[in-house]
What does this fold into?
Amino acid sequence: MATYFRPSRNVELSTLEYLETNLATDWSDVTLIKAFKKAYAKNINVPIVCVMLNSIDSVRYELGATTLENRYLVSVDIFAKSDAQRLDLADYILDIVREGWDYKEYQHVSGDNRQIIGTPASKITVTDFITNSKIELGEGDVKDRYRHTITFTVRRGKL
It folds into this structure.
């Protein structure tokens, strides 16, 4: 029996897969991670892009309805090698997410809980860009010298 993931997890995984595919095609040596803590691992070098689904805001479609429309807050943290690379990665990420991407429904491969597959089910659309800014942490850790954060909200739409 297949185990399907819930919508929030599907949004996060769809976003990660989309960014990972594009970064691998258009950039070299950029590591994509899901957990912020992993950015500080000694075996992972900059440049790093960390993507997380931070929160979900649910609103009713209409007064009295029980159907909800979820808006998902996605955070993209960039750990770059230089200020120029930080700006280039930020612009690149904005360019590719503004068009939207496939929302996939993920499930474990039958009989193997270590592998998942995703099937396109609709689209993910950016509804709001919230932040796009440099994070100034001084000259401490090499990973913190050229930091940037981008946050935006997305929603699932029709295919």
About this structure: The chain is about 20% helix and 45% strand.
